[in-house]
């Protein structure tokens, strides 16, 4: 066991020294090579074809892990954090439709689940509608 650890250290330390000593141009070249390899692999690997048994398995997994269906309250627009940026305090939500649209801040304590379809809240849709609008400065992207 000790011999194996010594062997691995002897093999890995020179590689670590090389990685730490090389410049930015070598790192940029490596990134370009990896991007090219990724592009080639994507071209050659066709679209994944699922069998009916695979689809049944995915459906069972999705039913087991999905959130209970609820009416959407609005679109998530971002997160609000403390000045230090270490703790999320609110979820910023765009509530309403064309004419009554407003942005509201939902306390993070009201979030009960986060999934690929959105954020689930412990508040009702009416409670979200009753929240006062907040003025949010959006960074230009």
- Our measurement of the CA-to-CA distance between the termini, rounded to an integer number of angstroms, reads 54 Å
CATH superfamily of the largest domain: PRC-barrel domain
Radius of gyration (CA) equals 25 Å
The SSE order reads HHHEEEEEH
CATH architecture of the largest domain: Roll
* Share in helix: 40-55%
Number of helices: 4
Task: Describe the structure in your own words.
With 141 residues, the chain is of the alpha+beta class. The protein folds into 2 domains: 2-44, no CATH class; 74-130, SH3 type barrels, CATH 2.30.30.240. It is 43% helix and 22% strand. It contains 4 helices and 5 strands. It has helices at residues 2-21, 24-44, 52-65, 125-130, and strands at 74-81, 88-95, 102-107, 111-115, 118-121. The strands form 2 sheets. The chain has a 3-stranded antiparallel beta sheet with strand order 1-2-3, with no helix packed on it. A two-stranded antiparallel sheet has the order 4-5. Strand 2 and strand 3 form a beta hairpin. The longest helix is centred in the N-terminal third of the chain and has 21 residues, at 24-44. It is extended and about 65 Å long. The termini are far apart. The relative contact order is 0.09.
């Amino acid at each position: 066991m000790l011999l194996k650890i010594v062997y691995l250290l002897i093999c890995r330390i020179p590689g670590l020294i090389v990685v730490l000593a090389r410049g930015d141009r070598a790192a940029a070249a490596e990134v370009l090579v990896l991007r090219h390899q990724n592009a080639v692999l994507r071209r050659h690997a066709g679209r994944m074809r699922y069998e009916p048994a695979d689809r049944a398995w995915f459906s069972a997994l999705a039913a087991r892990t999905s959130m209970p269906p609820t009416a959407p309250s609005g679109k998530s627009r971002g997160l609000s954090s403390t000045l230090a940026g270490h703790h999320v305090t609110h979820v910023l939500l765009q509530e309403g439709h064309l004419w009554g649209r407003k942005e509201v801040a939902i306390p993070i304590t009201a979030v009960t689940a986060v999934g690929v379809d959105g954020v689930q809240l412990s508040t009702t849709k009416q409670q979200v509608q009753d929240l006062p609008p907040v003025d949010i400065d959006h960074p230009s992207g």
